[in-house]
Design brief:
57% of the residues lie in helices and 13% in strands. Helix 5 (160-196) packs antiparallel against helix 6 (198-212). It folds into two domains: 66-157, no CATH class; 163-370, Orthogonal Bundle (MetI-like fold). It is elongated, with a radius of gyration of 27 Å. With 379 residues, it is of the alpha+beta class.
């Protein structure tokens, strides 16, 4: 009897907790039961933190200023603790030298000296950088002599490891700015159209449909022709982010409009209007908060599409360009057959790009299912 009573009390407490839980608690309870979404969250947090702290986590400046002229198109250098010469308590790499040989028609030939060890050191001083406004020169790791390249180098001698982590930060920044611009425009246009209806709704829907029909690639081809060549990398970065935001709001705006059309005649809205609340107050304080969870889900889902758009535009040469490091810029170098046959380490940033997009997709799908009011919490 005691066990039966205890189980009944537990079930009663769970039911009470379910019916008294807020919207956020219910979403979290459903979300944490989805293993793929939770793994996506962990991966996403790791990648975001890696991008934010890229100047510290990477040993060198990712631009031409930090290039290794003596190790161009160099293979990844994997630290080791032992080899045929014995064990070492400190991780080490081998010394590489490059020279032209008549046997290879005077092409550069890299020779690895397995007798000359160079040791990996932690927290060395290196290239100066600014992290969250704080100047610093310490890096997570480096080499006691020369340089170490975990992911190898490109044809300019730039460290691919350093470029990859800085590229993640840049692509996420572009996506964030684009999503924020699209989010604000969608709330304003969709909110006004859904609340007022009538001829205002008709005009705004015509504008929305017009923006949706604009093809992105021809638009960027036309804009890239008018971008002054003297523009700095920062100006180009901001311009691309803004354009992605200005053409990415119609889908969310339509969802906002549809929800407000169904909610604007509810009793709580009429009560707020009878109390003298303005239209902007009703929209901001009553209508939009009624489906906040769906807005958050839309934002998360739209993030990978913004990153994909930036990557695709930069990949075809219409977006960001060197010296800006983004995933799209780095993918430009993997299109040649020479890279595919001889320099396979150029594809390492592709792995990070796929992982980033999949993490966003898993998290977005998990949030979409968790925000479903008809979904059940699995025990």
């Amino acid at each position: 009897m005691t066990d039966t009573a205890t189980n009944a009390d537990v079930d009663r407490n769970l039911k009470e907790a379910y019916f008294t839980a807020g919207q956020g608690q219910l979403i979290w309870a459903r979300f944490k039961k989805q293993k793929a979404a939770m793994v996506g969250v962990i991966v996403l947090v790791v990648l975001i933190l890696s991008g934010l702290f890229a100047p510290f986590l990477t040993p060198y400046d990712p631009t031409i200023a930090g290039r290794d002229a003596d190790y161009q198109n160099g293979a990844p250098q994997i630290p080791k603790f032992w080899d045929e010469n014995g064990f070492s308590a400190r991780p080490f790499i081998y010394t590489a030298s490059r020279e032209r040989s008549i046997k290879t028609n005077f092409r550069w030939v890299t020779t690895i000296d397995r007798e000359a060890r160079r040791y990996v050191v932690f927290f060395p001083k290196g290239d100066e950088y600014t992290l969250f406004g704080i100047p610093a020169s310490r890096h997570l790791f480096g080499a006691d002599v020369g340089k170490v390249h975990l992911f190898g180098t490109d044809n300019g001698g730039k460290d691919i490891y350093s470029r990859t982590f800085h590229a993640i930060n840049t692509s996420l920044a572009v996506g964030t700015i684009g999503v924020l611009i699209a989010f604000v425009l969608a709330l304003i246009i969709g909110g006004v159209a859904g609340y007022y209806g009538g001829w205002i709704d008709s005009i705004l829907q015509m504008i929305t449909d017009a923006v949706r029909t604009i093809p992105a690639i021809p638009l960027f081809m036309a804009l890239s022709a008018f971008i002054p060549p003297e523009w700095s990398a920062e100006s180009r970065f901001l311009f691309i982010s803004m354009i992605l935001g200005f053409i990415g709001w119609p889908t969310l705006a339509r969802r906002v409009r549809t929800h407000l059309l169904t909610e604007r005649n509810q009793e709580y809205v009429l009560a707020a209007e009878l109390c003298g609340a303005s239209a902007s107050h009703v929209i901001r304080k009553h209508l939009l908060p009624s489906f906040t969870s769906y807005i958050i889900v839309d934002l998360v889902i739209s993030f990978p599409y913004m990153v994909l758009s930036e990557t695709a535009l930069s990949f075809i040469g219409l977006g960001l360009k060197d010296p800006v490091n983004s995933l799209g810029v780095m993918l430009q170098s993997v299109t040649s057959a020479d890279v595919l046959l001889n320099y396979q380490w150029y594809f390492i940033p592709v792995i990070f790009f796929i992982t980033l997009v999949l993490a966003f997709v898993f998290v977005g799908d998990g949030l979409r299912d968790a925000a479903d009011p008809y979904g059940e919490i699995k025990k």
